[in-house]
What does this fold into?
Amino acid sequence: MTKDLDKSEKIKHVSKSSLKTMRRTYKRNIAREKARIVKYGTRGFSRNIWLSTAATVVMAFTLIILFATVVASVILTNTAELMKDKIDITIYLKPGTSAEALAELTETIKKDPNIKSVVTSTSEEEYAKFLEDNAGSEDIINVLDEEMTALMIDKMQATMRIKVYNIDNLDSIKKLVATEKNFVQNIDEEKAPTYDVNQVEIATITSWARIARTGGIALGVVFLVVSILIIFSTIRMAIFSRREEIYMMKLVGADKSFIRGPFLIEAEICGLISGLIAATISYAGFEFVAPKLSRYGVDISTISNVLHSNRLVLVYLVFIAVGVIIGRISARMAVSKYLNKA
Amino acid sequence: MILLDSVTKKYPGDNEPALDSVSLHIEPNEFVFLVGKSGAGKSTLMKMITKEEIPDSGKIIIGGIDLDYVKKRDIPGYRRRLGVVFQDFKLLPRRTVYENVAFALEIAGMSGKEIRKTVPKVLELVDLLDQAKKFPGQLSGGQQQRVSIARSVARQPKILIADEPTANLDKLTTEEIMGLLKKINDFGTTILVTTHNENIVNTLQKRVVTMKDGKIVNDQKNNGVYELSEARVPVRRVQTPGHALKQKKKVILS
It folds into this structure.
């Protein structure tokens, strides 16, 4: 009998035309539907105020942790870079090396691509600097008569202070200083360049900078994943408690988008509010901690510049966007789980 | 209006089929009781009609639509053509009575103006206009079922199916609900009700279809009575596969 029915083109035709009519007569008005979704989403947020509050608090908390991770990473990297920048290599040249000779040596060494900057100082300039450094020390100033001054200038090495881009790779500079004719002639044999003097400090700072950079990124990624999981679980729990509602809506003939919509709006409102709260708390927290960090020589300039400019608005927008996006994705995934069941 | 032909459904893991070659033909404007013990297959049959379940074999034609042609994307639209009343009401707990009824109209794409006009009328029909702003949790079981009925008839469906609509209600409320369903039937809606309640079946004296072990064992066309005891079940007319279809085909093809 079923076979007979399959053959029945009439039944097929009636069914198909009925379905066609059904689709055609469904007066879908996207704008109206969206407005209703927003209405029920906002109402849902306020009617489920406890769950909404819990989700918002968790989301705000995780956003703050995320911000703290990013800030810590930036500050650590900047501070390490700052410290590295303070380190220079000093090459001591024979006392009395002329300014012209120093200029020539500068030209020679600058050919190395690792050289960032070179500052030279003749014996006279070194003496002037010595006086400046000891201006408060009367015992020293008092013994510096003309004869003593001339003797000191005669003994004081001219210097060449070099800053490099990559402190880990000084081989080419070492080789140049040791073999280049001008350097060989002018270098002071009694006082060796300070490549090795700061080696331990340089190594420590370099490794810290590396850890800060890679560790910061890794930590940031871990926190981002953990944050998403926490927010996702919170929203999923909130939606789990309402899975029956989803099932009911399906049974009475609601479209998936109409069922899903209000849940997405609720999660987006959570994201928006938590973004605002987290940005405000993070800003206030940074303002509180920043002076203390500065006192320890921590470089907070990058973050401080961002927060004390028009870009603060951008920071708020990023917070809100992250909250809204994570909320939306989590809600969508959680609702889909129950939407596809019934 | 409702046609099932040799419908069989077996759930994975079960030894016996939930529906075993069931054939049933319900005419437009009929009021039919589907009775049977728990596990007889009543709920499965209802789920077949709402397309919550798909038969392993057989045909189901509802309101002229062969459900084989109802694709996944058409299911919401198809369900909007039916009125469905559940034993546990299935109301949206976080929406008011008004919003629950309005929801059925909103998903059908009705405008706000039409909804504002229709909902009060439907609530008046079920005598709940004064409770419109309350939430389901603030209502009695009978009132909740009336909201459920209001929601299901708001779109004026041609078919209304009710799965044990009075199972959780007291005698007086049961009579009230059945009176309401009868009133809706009088307006021209085809009604299929599953129930355990002997009194309401015997009082209303409508067509009674009895199910047992996934089969229809009795079909009393008029003035049917509730007879579940195995000894007393008079097998007056057990439909053979294709029987329902033969009758329906005449209607469709004419």
Summary: The domain at 88-196 of chain A is CATH 3.30.70.3040 (Alpha-Beta Plaits). The mean pLDDT of chain A is 82. The beta strands of chain A are 89-93, 115-121, 158-164.
